[in-house]
Design brief:
Residues 215-263 are annotated as: Disordered. Residues 217-227 have a biased composition (Basic and acidic residues). The chain crosses the membrane at residues 183-204. It comes from Propioniciclava coleopterorum. Helices cover 23% and strands 27% of the residues. By secondary structure, the protein is of the alpha+beta class. The longest helix is centred in the C-terminal third of the chain and has 30 residues, at 182-211.
Length: 263
C-alpha cells in the first residue's frame, strides 16, 4: 500500500509540475493551498507495454486513482498519445509540518515557499517520458527570491519554457509566501528620517561654529562674508598734502659768488 501511494504521489508530482512529453498550464500558490490548471500530453504507454505492474505514467493521471481537490478530464490527443487536464487545488504544508501530499516537493518555512524537483523527474525513467516541450507559469503570493535556470522571473511569477534546462538542472524556486512585509518599509523610512535629521544637525553645528570663530582663529570653510561688508565701496587712496614752495628772492646778491664782493 505504501509503495502504491509512493508511486501515486510521484506520478502526481510529475503530472502536476512539469512532467510528460509536453506540458502547458498554470500553477498558482497561495498561503494555504496551490491551484492547478495544467494539461499533460505524451505517448500512450499502452501502445508499448501492458499495464499490469507497468510504471505509473500520465495515462494513470486520468485513470482510476484520485487526489483530493483535483479533477481529471481526458483531453483529445493525436493517435498514440494521451492527454489529461488537471484542475483544482491541493493543500500546502503548514509552516514546518509534513501534513500534505506535496510535502518534499513544496515546503513552507520561515515565511518562504520552497519548490524543489530534481532533474530525474523530467528525464526518461521509471515514471515519466522525457520532457520535450513546456510552457508553465508559476505564480506565488510574494516576490520570487531565486529560481533555477530555464525560467524567466518577473516579480512574483516564474514562466518556465526551456525543457533542456529543466531536464539538466531540475526546477527549484524560492519565493515569499506573502507580499512585501510593511515592517521592512517602516524600518527603511525610520532609517531615512534618522539619517536626514543627523545631517541637518551636523550642518547647523558647523554653521554655529563658523559664526563663533574668534579673530585669531581660522575661519571655517562654511563661514560667510558679512552682509554689510559686501555693501562697502572700495577704499580710495588719497595723496598726502605737501607744503608750498617759497617764492624766489628778489635780492641780486643771493645768486652772486662770494669772491665778487668789493673789498
Amino acid at each position: 500500500m505504501v509503495q502504491r501511494r509512493t508511486k501515486v504521489v510521484a506520478a502526481v508530482a510529475g503530472a502536476l509540475l512539469l512532467t510528460g512529453c509536453t506540458l502547458d498550464g498554470t500553477v498558482t500558490f497561495h498561503r494555504e493551498n496551490v491551484e492547478v490548471d495544467v494539461v499533460v500530453q505524451h505517448r500512450d504507454p499502452r501502445a508499448r507495454q501492458p499495464r499490469g505492474d507497468a510504471p505509473i505514467s500520465a495515462v494513470d493521471v486520468c485513470g482510476d486513482w484520485s487526489v483530493g481537490g483535483l479533477s481529471k478530464e481526458q483531453r483529445p490527443a493525436p493517435t498514440g498519445e494521451v492527454a489529461c487536464r488537471l484542475t483544482g487545488s491541493v493543500a500546502l504544508p503548514v509552516d514546518g509540518s509534513e501534513a500534505s501530499e506535496l510535502n518534499g516537493m513544496i515546503n513552507r518555512t520561515n515565511g518562504s515557499i520552497f519548490v524543489t524537483m530534481p532533474s530525474a523527474w523530467f528525464a526518461s525513467g521509471s515514471y515519466t517520458e522525457k520532457l520535450t516541450a513546456i510552457d508553465l507559469t508559476l505564480r506565488f503570493p510574494g516576490p520570487v527570491v531565486a529560481s533555477s535556470s530555464g525560467g524567466q522571473v518577473l516579480g512574483a511569477t516564474v514562466r518556465v519554457t526551456d525543457p533542456a534546462a529543466i531536464t539538466r538542472t531540475g526546477l527549484w524556486v524560492t519565493a515569499r509566501d506573502g507580499p512585501f512585509d510593511p515592517m521592512f518599509l517602516a524600518l527603511g523610512l525610520m532609517l531615512l528620517v534618522g539619517g536626514s535629521a543627523g545631517a541637518a544637525a551636523m550642518w547647523l553645528h558647523l554653521r554655529r561654529a563658523a559664526r563663533s570663530a574668534g579673530p585669531d582663529e581660522p575661519e571655517h570653510f562654511l563661514a560667510r562674508v558679512p552682509e554689510d561688508a559686501a555693501d562697502e565701496p572700495p577704499a580710495v587712496r588719497r595723496e598726502r598734502p605737501h607744503p608750498p614752495r617759497p617764492a624766489p628772492s628778489e635780492d641780486p646778491t643771493v645768486w652772486s659768488h662770494g669772491d665778487d664782493e668789493p673789498d
